Structure formats: structure tokens, C-alpha cells
Amino acid sequence: MQEAVAVQTPWYRASFKEWVLTTDHKKIAILYAVTSLVFFAVAGLMGMVIRLELTSPGMQYVSPDFYNYLLTGHGAVLLLWWAIAFWGAFTNFLIPLMIGARDVAFPRLNQLSYWFFFSASILVLITLIPSQNIKMMWTGYPPFSLHDGAGPTALYVFIIWLIAGSTLGTGVNFITTVLRMRAKGITLGGMNLMVHGLMASIVIQLLGVPAFVGAVTMLFLDKYIGTGFFNPAVGGDPILYQHLFWFYSHPAVYVMILPAFGVFSEVISTMSRKPIFGRKSMVIALWAIAILGFEVWAHHMFTSGMPDWLRIVMSYTTVLIAVPTGIKIFNWAATLHKGAIRFHTPMLFTLGGIFMFLIGGLTGIPLALPSFDIHVHDSHFVVGHFHYVLAMAVTFGAFSGAYFWYPKVTGRMFPEGLGKASFWLMLVGSNIFYFTQMMVGIAGMPRRYADYPAIPEWVKLNEIQTVGAFILAAGVLLTFVAWIRGLKGPRVERSPWGSPSLEWTTPSPPPPQNFDKLPVEVPPGWSPYHYGR
Amino acid sequence: MMETLLFVSGGPLAWAGGKTPVAYPAQFWDQIFNIWLVIAVVIYLLVALPMIYFMAKYRYRKGVNEVGAHEEGSLGIEILWTVVPLIIVIYLATQSFANYTQQRTAPADSLPVKVQGMMWAWSFEYPNGKKSINDLYVPVGKPVKLLLTSTDVVHAFHIPEAKTMEDAVPGRVTTMWFQFNKTGDFRAFCREYCGTLHSMMLATIKVVSQEEFDKWLQQPS
């Protein structure tokens, strides 16, 4: 076997050539993280332009077509490049370390997966060229996406193909890694909840992405070859696309949130110095969400024209998801009981994330009820709800995790003051923003509107949202500053937060071979949450 | 802020007071909204208050509280918080089922109107063949059943006062119903993204008296 390039150099001394040719899971993780953060910033800025435009009725800053492009870009990029891809960085960095492995099962495949993702990123940048603006929203519903006004559908399809290549490669790789490369003594049930969260998310992707790829491939054939899968003009059915699309794209929200659940569990247990409450039910709940997630897709289609009986069936399956989700929230709350809680930055983001997920979850329940959805479907209520889940629970989870493992990745400590200030700004800003967004939705404002009639209540609620958005943006900016300044921060020991989990038993940053001694072995009865004894 | 809050819940509160809504079937939405809101607020408090209490009481204090207790779980309480939420959500879905049936079933004496969505306008056709563009004339106090379709892409017809909507899909006919109890002009919005002027695809619902409506219906289009 060919030796990977420059395996003896720690990542921060790697040359450009090593970055390009690396098969080291830790370097690939950093590549994912940096790519993801760049796109997070770009799509966040797109969101700010959208927010500015909506502050008052009328078109002030952009044309309706450019607005539609921004909306498409904001949605697609934040879902694929942030809420999914940023977890790719955690998957790569943490899974081998948490299970005591030297690297992943197929390092070359892992490298290929990243470069597929990188190629997709380049294609996304091409859409910035005005003639290549994609304006069909991230959902790409036909027949609109078959229409010339939607922009280059082919580009959208190619992006999805490349992303799918990356996702499927990562899926096969990490499932094999976790099944075959666990250190002696670590059982499947005994793995960190973070590994379970990431694994559940990967399994969903492996099962669901093919349906999505199939859907967009048929879209491609319809538009360029003239087939009639979705085109009603030649006997196709546009609703079929919606089914195929949501069959993956609903479970995809669990792809985004389950790793955040993993972070919440790791951080809340470590910072409370207590084992996670009801650990077995946490694992069961996690996998129950992953399985149930595939039975609920049509709740995105309660007003689509599909049969009413199917709407009722899907409403029952959807509300069931609230049960395992509730179990997780209750267990986190109970973990705090009789703890010794340290309010470091990662803990603040975790607690904030749980509170916001609680609101996101409680506002998700009525959307599972067709009699409620019939008025708020495609309104800003839906947008506010999923921003509570995605922009707050997922993003707070991602930030919490990034702050938590920052000392492990860099070997240095970030400035805590900046981290805490960032948290409070983000918490206040996003609540002002997204709560009013839900209110304007209940007041009737439709989503994906570049402009809206000057109804006084709508105008007022939109103005408040913009204020919140700027506070939120300032908070995010402080985190970027904290992470950059932290690179020159004080050096840290192996386990600055006092966690006994495997990744903390190795030096910070971990050496190229991951552990001091290989193979890694854990004593009988070992647990990553061994506190209070 | 309070004023805005009240505005948003204005409809639902009106239902609680037993008032007739501006348009049917809004009362069914108002009812499910109220039920959900009460349950959601109660659950929020039941989770958030203990969490805040624990955060204050069990905070790290040097020399006093440095290590947490070794508490791994409790079967009884875990079963409790599995079963109770299950009962609540099954109830909510069933209540929604009951309401939804009424929101979706047009009264037998409804006036049928054919609706066609197109980029970016609405056209309406009445039983006698009379057509209009972007203005939907309806008599006050009479249920109306819309038969929706589209000539190009997917659109959706939303009436905020009636709190109901349905997609207009090319190649299919979908239905929805409503009844206005007050005369005047009301807006209807396209709720499914349909391109450049999606946000301009508004129709006006002109609610007039039965006599006025009959007169209008007899005029040539």
C-alpha cells in the first residue's frame, strides 16, 4: 500500500501540497470545516441582503429575480454546506478518535469524498455569475424547475450529484470504520452519544440520498431530453417529484440535528460532571428518530393536492417523532440535576441550543397537524419554526461542538470572553428575529415573497426581525474573531474540560497516528461519561 | 409588543369569545391553534423552569460543589415521559383530524368556481361561463367551492381570513372551500413559489351582497 503523504507532520505545519494530497482524517476534517465556514459566511450574507430587502415593502436593494437567487442560495448552501457539511468535519475528526482507531477504514475514499465536495463548492460559486443564477429555490419543484425562468437546472443537478458522491463515500467509509475499527472493549452501545448521533445521520444519508439523486436525475432528463416524469404537458406528475424529494429531504433535517444532539449530550455531561441521564434511552431515541424520520415526508405536502387520507396518515406518523425527541430533551434536563455545572462557552451554546430546540420542537408539532398547517403552510411561520431548529438548535450545537473540541483540534484555548459575548448576542438576536418571523407568518405573510403589500402589522414585524438579524450577525462575527484569535491563545493539556472520553486522552492536537500507543484498549466497564465516582 | 401579540392572536381570541369569524372555516383553525398554544406553553414551562432551577442550584462552586452525583437514570420517570407525550400527540392528531375533515368538506350548497393559476395571475370561471381575472366576486354568507388547476407551474391559493389554502397543480383539479360573512375587499395570495413575480400574484376577493352578485354574474365578461 502506498504510504500517505507526510504522515509525521502535525496539521498546523503541513505544506500546501500536503493539504491537497492528505488522507489524514484530521486534516480532511479541517478542510471540511474551513470550506463549510466560508460558505456559511457567504450564505449568511445572502440572508442579510434578503432580510434588508424585506424590512419594508417595495423593492429597495435588489430585483425580484436576484432576490429569488439569493433565497435559493441561502437555503441550499446553508443546508448542504453548513448544516450537513460542517458535521462532516466532526465525523472526520471525532469518529476515529472516539473509537480509538488509527484512521478511517478507507482513507483514500475519504480523500475522494472531500474533493467531490470541493468540486460541488466550485459549481456553487459558478452560480454567482449573473447568467447562471439558479432561481428555483433549494426544493427545485417542477414544472417551475423545467421552465427557463428557473435558471440553469443542470447546474443544480450536477451540484447534487457531486454532493451525493461525497455523501455516499463518507457513509460507506464511516459505517465500516465504526463497525470494524472500534478499540478492544468499546461495544456499539458503549460508544459516545456523539458517535451515535453522527452514525445515525450517516445511515440516513446512505438510505435517503439515492431517492433525492433519482429525483433530480429525472428532473434533468425531463428538462434536457424531453422525458415526462414530472412534466404534466407530456403526461407526467409534478407531485411525484415532491414525494421523491421529501423522502430524503425530510430525513435530511435529522441528518442535521442528530449530530447536534450528540454534541448536547457530550457537553452537558462533561460540564455537569455527571453521566448522561438515561443513556440507553438516549441511544434508542436517537435511532428511533432516524427510523421514524423516513415515515413522515409527506407532511411537507399537506396542501399539495395529494389525497386527504394520506395527509391524515402522515400527520399521525409525524407527531410520533415528538416522543423520542421529548425523551432526549427530558434526559438532558435531568442530567443537570445534582450536577456541578460549569458555564463555559460550549455549555452556554448547548443550553441555549436545547432551549431553542424546545421552541423549535413545540412549534413543529402544529405543523404536523393538517388542520393547523392549512393556514400557515408556506408562510413565515414555517420559516421561523425551521430557523429555530436549524439556525438555532443546529447552529448552536455546531458552535458548541466547535468550541468544545477547539482545544483538541488546535492545542490552544480560545478567548472565553469573546465566546460568551458571541453566545449572548446570538441568543438575543435570533430570538428577536425568529419569534417575530413566526408571528408575521401567523398574521399571514407568505414565504418566498420578494415584496409584500404594506399591511401595517407585517411592516412592523418585519422591521423588528431586521434588528434581530443584525444582532445575530454581530454575534456570529464575534465567534469568527474568537476562533481566529484562539489560534494564538494559551496552550492546553490533553483534557482541558476534564472529560475521560478517548479523544481527550491523546495530546492536543493529536499526533498523526492519533494515540500514544496503538492499538488502543479500554478497561472493562469503561465509559466516556465516567463521572461522580 | 403586547399590541402585536394581541394582533396575532386576535382571530383565535375572537373565536374564544364565540364571535363569528370574518370567513369560514377559520374557526376550526382558531380552535386547533388555541389547543396547541395552551399545551405548548405548559410543556415549555414544565421543561424550562426545572432546567433553570437546576442551572442555578447545581452550578459549580469551588470547594462546595465540584463533582456531580453518579445518577444514571430512572426507569419510572423515563416511562412516564414517554407515555404522557405519546397520549398528548395522539390526542392532538385526532383533534386535528376532526377539524380537518370540516375544513376540507365543502357544504352541499356551495357555489362552484373554477380557478386557474398562471404566471402570474388568477382567472375565475363561474357556472354560467362568466369569467374574470384577478377579481373573485362572491356573495356574502354563501359557501364557495374552488376547483383549482394551473396552466403552467404549481401555484397555491391562500385566503388569510378563511385560514385555508390549497395548491393549484397543472394536470390536476384540487378543491378548497370558504364562506365570507362580511362584505368588502379581501386579498388572496399565491403561496407556492412560481418565479419572478410570485409575490405580485395577488387576487382580490370582492364580497358583495347576493343581489349585487347576481347582477354582476349576468353582465357579459
Layout: helices, strands, pairs:
The complex is a heterodimer of chains A (533) and B (221).
Chain A: H1 16-21, H2 25-54, H3 64-98, H4 107-126, H5 153-180, H6 193-224, H7 238-249, H8 251-272, H9 279-292, H10 308-320, H11 322-336, H12 345-364, H13 370-376, H14 380-410, H15 416-442, H16 456-486
Chain B: H1 2-8, H2 10-16, E1 23-24, H3 26-57, H4 75-104, E2 111-118, E3 121-125, E4 131-133, E5 135-139, E6 144-150, E7 155-159, E8 164-168, E9 174-180, E10 184-190, E11 202-208, H5 210-218
Parallel strand pairs in B: 2-6, 5-11
Antiparallel strand pairs in B: 1-9, 2-3, 3-4, 6-9, 7-8, 7-10, 10-11
Helix pairs in contact in B: 1-2, 2-3, 3-4
Description of the molecule:
The complex is a heterodimer of chains A (533) and B (221). Chain A contains 16 helices and no strands. Chain A folds into 2 domains: 21-249, Up-down Bundle (Cytochrome C Oxidase, Chain A), CATH 1.20.210; 257-513, Up-down Bundle (Cytochrome C Oxidase, Chain A). Chain A has helices at 16-21, 25-54, 64-98, 107-126, 153-180, 193-224, 238-249, 251-272, 279-292, 308-320, 322-336, 345-364, 370-376, 380-410, 416-442, 456-486. In chain A, helix 5 (153-180) packs antiparallel against helix 6. Chain A has 533 residues and is mainly α. In chain B, helix 1 packs across helix 2 (10-16), helix 2 (10-16) packs across helix 3 and helix 3 runs antiparallel to helix 4 (75-104). Chain B folds into 2 domains: 2-104, Helix Hairpins (Orthogonal Bundle), CATH 1.10.287.90; 111-218, Cupredoxins -  blue copper proteins (Immunoglobulin-like, Sandwich). In chain B, the strands form 2 sheets. Chain B has a 6-stranded mixed beta sheet with strand order 1-9-6-2-3-4. Chain B has a 5-stranded mixed beta sheet with strand order 5-11-10-7-8, with helices on one face. Chain B has helices at residues 2-8, 10-16, 26-57, 75-104, 210-218, and strands at residues 23-24, 111-118, 121-125, 131-133, 135-139, 144-150, 155-159, 164-168, 174-180, 184-190, 202-208.
